[in-house]
Structures
1.
Amino acid sequence: MRLSGIFAARIWLMHTFTQYMYMENNTRRAVPLSGTYPVPQEESGTRSLCQECGAPVYGRPDKKFCCDSCKNRWHNRRARSSRLFRMKVMSALEKNYRILSDLLVRGTDKVEVSTLGQMGFDFYHITGYRKVRKSAEMWCYDIRFTVTESVVKSIRKVEYL
Ligand SMILES: [Zn+2]
């Protein structure tokens, strides 16, 4: 099996670094590059790989990144994907709200579940849900509606103030 270039380079870097550590702890005696030799547990110091770049991480056992810039990159990416996810949810809710509002403007308070689905309504993105006997009461912001197996009915805007 062939290793990819990056993976092979990473293995080589780890190998070289481990060897350097070994030399430091053995009065800088030259150690052959190839061949096996024991690396004492405490002296190797390697506990995990950087979550961002995959380089070996040295130091505290719970350390996850090799440096601050890797740590920042990882956290920034995670914050970005969380923000994107929230934006998708918000736009799905907005779309649902627009569909329900349009129905109300046209004076419609009842529609087939399948028709609402065809209009692009997404039943997974609502702001409230309550089970009522054989149906469900749902909210999309201030619009409330009742959902049975085949029909969405009693669509109305709820006055909160
Ligand atoms: Zn790193």
2.
Amino acid sequence: MDINAQNVEQIVRQVLQEMGNKPMPKSSGSQGEIPQKSRAAMLTALEKYEIKEFPIPELGDDDILVKVEGCGVCGTDAHEFKRDPFGLIPVVLGHEGTGEIVKMGKNVKKDSAGKPLKVGDKVVTCMIFADDPDITMYDLNKQNVGKGAEVYGLIPDDDIHLNGWFADYIVIRGGSTVFNVSDLNLEERILIEPCAVLIHAVERAKTTGILRFNSRVVVQGCGPIGLICVAILRTMGIENIVAVDGEEKRLSFAKEMGATATVNFKEHNGIEALAGAVKDAFGGYLADFAFQCTGSPVAHSNIYKFIRSGGGLCELGFFINGGDATINPHFDICAKEITTVGSWVYTLRDYATTFDFLKRAKGIGLPMEKLITHKYPLSEINQAHITNLKMEGLKIAIINE
Ligand SMILES: [Zn+2]
């Protein structure tokens, strides 16, 4: 065989390319290098995380040990950090996490969607139904909150301690829901939880029968929730979206996510002027449907004025009690026959839908990963929360080194 220089170069290039496509497995994986202890960031007092070390316990037959790769900082974490409204201190927080399976009990074979699980797979967790094993992921009833459902990262401390994703390792116990998401990258996996909130909201919106292919849709609030809302609407084929916010930076990101026009409420004095600006942005029409994605009571009062007669509204901004809002039932709801739905959290089914949404979003070129604006190592978790409270970025994430 005559191998000339050109051929050799070609072969070398091909081999290098193949190596590049298939990275060497990390030593942390199935190679048995599991340490005896794991760091965990424990919130021990208001506005104070301490990095502690806990022994990694023996796994039960139904348990999974996951090496954490990263975890988003949520609004709920911010509330806990500031005020501990759930009374969880001392607690290992972090519920928007993901990582790699390093060890599994002998009974663990499949994830909650029936996909096979093995050491090396990337996973996320959803809710834990330890008290109610009859709830399955295809349960159409929304049994996602309240008694019988818990979430890793919001569990009271126990003798295992490794209960949240702000750690190097987390112990996923039998009875938990876990999903194999090895086909999503780290940033996408960190965004699953907040995206599921919006998948649920859009499913709620669809029950009105008003949201259609060529609907005019207004999205009020361009934090992570509103921006993800715009992205989901785009993956559904809705093209006529007006985003409303008070920050130019967020509005321009809304355009990158697929909003056709934006309205800065700070440029309009009074609700009549603001409603006029929204109407102008739709070329002289009010919205067929509106998503309210801020936690501001005034924003709730305002949004009815953006919606046409016979239109619909999904209110999802009040994840926690943000106070009362004033509306005029005659003008805002009755005379216009507005159909409203509320939305809160998600179901297991929404979680599974979210994995497909993230692939679709990538497929049509939406810059989802840019939602993660700040990354901190675990050792700087206090700073990560301070940045989050200042509302400087969008999604803040802890990325383990
Ligand atoms: Zn969250």
